[in-house]
């Protein structure tokens, strides 16, 4: 049996809003959102961890580069469990790097480092953790994209209106850099 809760974000959620309350979530049954061609599933966020970290997965098909962005107060971890994901990172010194991550590979992006990623194989999956002094950003996904009740990838990519990129991210320590150029391939 799985317990469902009403939260300020959703009518039903398997994530309790109360910090310090143990819980379990079956595979794929966290709070889901569609953004671009991906399915994001949140398993733990700021409300459960006193804003110290979040834990989520991103699943997607082979696709386009996710827009370059940075987090001024948040460190982000990319751990690939399926498929292949190319991670692009620019350090605060301007040095750019890219790395193809396959199952078991790990990527770390410090705060203030511009980054982006691209799913390189169909059915790729990233386990993500984000933490920092500014709180967590997990509700960004459903506010820029759309909440998803069903399992699975979106039937059509969810591409936000350009103006939404400027308003929603400010609340969640995500700053998009639409003119950023990657010098790597």
UniProtKB/TrEMBL annotation:
Domain Cupin type-2: start-end pairs: 60-119
InterPro entries in alphabetical order: Cupin_2, QDO-like, RmlC-like_jellyroll, RmlC_Cupin_sf
Domain of life: Bacteria
Coiled coil segments of this chain: none
Membrane spanning residue stretches: none
The name this protein goes by in its record: Quercetin 2,3-dioxygenase
Organism per entry: Streptomyces chrestomyceticus
């Amino acid at each position: 049996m799985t317990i469902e809760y009403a939260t300020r974000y959703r009518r039903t959620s398997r994530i309790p809003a109360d910090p310090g309350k143990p819980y379990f979530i079956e595979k794929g049954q966290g709070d889901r959102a569609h953004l671009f061609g991906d399915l994001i599933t949140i398993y733990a966020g700021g409300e459960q961890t006193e804003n110290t970290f979040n834990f989520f997965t991103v699943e997607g098909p082979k696709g386009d580069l996710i827009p370059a962005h940075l987090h001024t107060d948040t460190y982000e971890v990319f751990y690939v469990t399926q498929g292949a994901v190319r991670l692009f990172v620019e350090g605060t010194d301007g040095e750019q790097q890219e790395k193809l991550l396959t199952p078991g590979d790990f990527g770390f992006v410090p705060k203030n480092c511009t980054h982006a990623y691209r799913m390189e194989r169909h059915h790729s999956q990233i386990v993500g953790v984000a933490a920092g002094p500014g709180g967590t950003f997990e509700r960004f996904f459903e506010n820029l994209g759309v909440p998803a009740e069903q399992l699975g990838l979106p039937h059509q990519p969810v591409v936000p209106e350009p103006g939404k990129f400027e308003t929603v991210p400010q609340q969640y320590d995500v700053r998009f850099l639409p003119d950023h150029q990657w010098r790597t391939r």
